[in-house]
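Minutes, project check-in
Item: structure for the 235-residue chain
Input as provided by the requester:
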Amino acid sequence: MTETVVLPGDHVPAQHVNLKLGPGLQQHSTSSTTKAEATVIVTRAGELHHSGNRSKWWVESNSRRYVPAAQESVIGVVIQRQGEGFRVDIGGAHSAYLDALAFEGATKRNKPNLKVGSLVYARVSLAHKDMEPELECFDAQSRKAEGFGELKGGFVVRCSLKMCRDLLDPQHFLLPLLGGRFPLEAATGVNGRVWVSAKEIKQTIALVRCIEAADPDDGGMDVVKLKRFLDTLEV
């Protein structure tokens, strides 16, 4: 994965048979005398990233406002029951819709009974500037939960969008470091929310404080400083 700084209006050389565009990029079709061509334009300033095989491209910016994009994992709060589904706050400009059947094994007779205030770990299945986002709580390929669904207990930490994306990187030091000290569970949404759970309250508090300390917006401690900070906590 590589990265470079881009600005709105910049053209991106994104070409792939299975091209997938993430946040900050938009595809425009232009016609020429010979054929129709697709051009990828940057819509917000930030760091341009692409996957190793160049099939996935996206722009990362350390914004506090989440802009939904398809295929992203988010943590949401149920704010209303609506018809055969739920309205969910995911931190964007508009709430998202989660169908009650969008869970593994859900049927009309066997649906999840989420209440207002329930937490869900979901995947954005539809994101369009002219439509409300839609969510689902299963993996699109396997149709299995794969960790998605209602989150019970634990605590939600609010942090920067960059911190969330850092935590999703398998090479990031924080969660493996904490997991080496005590058992924990964590779910990271790219919408600025991280759900954590541990056996003891003091361990959950330590999780929260370490995530906040490592956040680039709140000091950005590196692994050495964080180890020292963790040693001062009672876990």
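Outcome recorded: The mean pLDDT is 88.
No further action items on this chain.
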